[in-house]
Amino acid sequence: MDLTVILFILLGLGGPLAFPVFSWAIGRWYQGTLLNALNEQEKQQNAAFGGHLIGSTSSKMTTLSAQSSVLLHTSIVVGPSMGQMFFMWFKSIFGGRLHSYDVIIEYGRREVTRRLQEQATHLGCSSIVNLRIETSTISFAKNSKSNTSSMEFLAFATGIRN
Amino acid sequence: MEPPQAISLMLSNVETIPGHSVVSSLGLVTGSTVRAKHIGKDIFAGLKNIVGGELKAYTELLNESRNEALQRMMADANSRGANAIVNVRFATSNVAAGASELFCYGTAVVVQ
Q: What's the CATH class of domain B10-36+67-111?
């Protein structure tokens, strides 16, 4: 077979896949850097403030000794890259673990918790009680096909000032 | 229409206001808002979707909207003569394609 014919066949196969592969690769790299940055920020925050006492219960002992309190709430919208969504669609034929979603969900939850702690520090709170994290799917897109492209993580809690 | 006054009440998502005691309960108060994105932001978010990660335009939009829902809830409580709201909960739902409802509710109380 002629070399140019093989080249054309490869281009024909590779052309439509080029963008998803590019998007998948760049998305994976970018989200890796986001997680690394988050690790650093968490370390710095813990070093500077010794970490907040965070609980998901409304402990009577903590709330009794309080001077005042404030409602903290923060949210973040995250989404996987287009290429990752494309390959996850393939993966869902066989089922199994969807690694790309794992990464982006972990990032969203940890980042929103970190921001809540940052907000608590800013408002002079010494501890956080009754932390709740909610997850919801946001479909801003007009076509219903891409409605899993973004997720919202909402964290809310009561900050206690002693 | 006059601009809405920023009302500030004591809020918490536990059953009391820590450091205060509840004197009387005035019932359930709610606040909600339905928001849709504007097309410019959507195009940028679409571009951001090439790499994934945080979609800042949407984060800001939802935070703004949630604050508005809180303001409406506080206005409701204020009109009943409450000075605090306890047990505040948030809920998010998709009411239509391209629109999102942000809802918050709590119990209006008088504290000392």
A: alpha beta
